[in-house]
C-alpha cells in the first residue's frame, strides 16, 4: 500500500516537473527563454527599426576577426589567434547589437504616450521599482513613478504646462506620505529644462543616493496605501501603446 502511494507521489511530481518545463518552453516571458532565443528576439525587434544593423554586425565581427588573424600571422601560432579573434568578434557584434537595440527601442516608442516606461524599464530592477501611469488626464498627460536609491522620482510626459501642474499635485501627495523622503519631479521631453527619453534612465541613475534598500522597501509599502485610494486613471478607450516589445529587447536577460 505504501509502495503504491510512493509511486503515485513520484508520478505526480514527475508530471508537475514536466508541466513546468513545458510552460517555461512556451512562455512569452523573456526571462524564461534560453539565452539564444533572447538574443534572436533582440535581433528581430532591432532589425525592424534599424536597417543598418546587419552591416554593422558584419563589420564589427569581421573587423575584429581579421585583426586576430593578422596578429596570428605575426605572432604564431596563427590558429590560436584566429580562434581568439572569432570569439572577440562575436563579443563585439553582440555589444553592437545591444547598443543598437537600445537606440532602436527609443526610436520605436519616441513620441508615443507612455514612452517613458521604456526608459524606466531599463533601470536596474534590483535597485529601482517603477509604477507606470500612476495618474493621467484625458489629454494623455501622464505621470510615472520610480522608487530607488535616489528617493521617489515622478516622471511626467505630455503638455509641459499641464504636466507641471500634475507633477506638483503628485509631489505634494507623495511628500505627505513619504515623511521626509526626497521627491524629484522630471518632465520628459525635448524642450528647455526637460529630459529627453534617451537620457531619462541615466538621469535617474545619477541622482544622489538618499535611501538604503531597507528604506526603499518601507517607502514602497507607504506608497501602496496612497495608490489604494486613487481614483481610476481617466484614460480614453483603448490601452496605451504596449511596451512589451521593448522589454523583450532590452530586459530579456
Tally of individual helices: 9
Number of strands: 4
Helix content: 55-70%
Strand content: 5-15%
Q: Describe the sheet with the most strands.
A: 4 strands, mixed
Broad structural category = alpha+beta
Order of SSEs: HHHHHEEEHEHHH
Number of domains: 2
Q: What would you report as the Rg, rounded to the nearest angstrom?
A: 24 Å
Average of the residue pLDDT scores: 83
N/C terminus separation: 47 Å
Which strand order spans the largest sheet, edge to edge or round the barrel? 1-2-3-4
User: Overall 3D geometry?
Assistant: extended
Taking pLDDT < 50 over at least 5 consecutive residues as the criterion, the unreliable ranges are 241-246
- What is the oligomer described by this structure? single chain
Describe the overall structure.
Helix content is 58%, strand content 11%. The longest helix is centred in the middle third of the chain and has 32 residues, at 78-109. It is of the alpha+beta class. The two termini are 47 Å apart. It has helices spanning 2-25, 35-47, 53-74, 78-109, 116-120, 160-178, 197-205, 213-228, 244-251; strands at residues 129-136, 142-148, 151-157, 183-187. It has two domains: 33-109, no CATH class; 116-234, no CATH class. A four-stranded mixed β-sheet has the order 1-2-3-4. The chain contains nine helices and four strands, in the order αααααβββαβααα. The radius of gyration is 24 Å and the shape is extended.
